[in-house]
Amino acid sequence: MKARDAYRLIVTRGGIAPALLADASRVDHVEIVEIDSGEVILFWDLAPHEASRRARAVREELGLLSPEEFLSRWATVDQ
Questions:
Q1: What is the arrangement of strands in the sheet containing 7-12, beginning at the earlier edge strand?
Q2: Closest listed residue to residue 52, CA positions, set 12, 16, 23, 7
């Protein structure tokens, strides 16, 4: 079973502009939600460019790792 079957990635932008054109003071939210319970497992408030990079990396690893590997890998990642 892959992590994408157990978790869902939600990215919420703090504005309508893409990350490249976003104001530096904008805050975007990246969260990982457990599908079965609907609870937020991991959550980051990041600058737009960093949120975009983080979401891309998370999306890739959701397809590669098992749920346990994914959670242990990303639970240690700080802002």
A1: 7-12, 28-34, 40-46
A2: 12
Query: How many residues belong to the chain?
Result: 79
Element (H, E) at 11: strand 7-12
pLDDT tens profile 20-61: 777 878 999 999 999 999 999 999 999 999 999 999 999 999
Task: Kindly write down the DSSP assignment for every residue of 13-49, as one continuous string.
Answer: -SSSS-GGGS-TT--EEEEEEETTT--EEEEEEE-HH
**Is the CB of residue 26 less than 8 Å from the CB of residue 48?**
yes
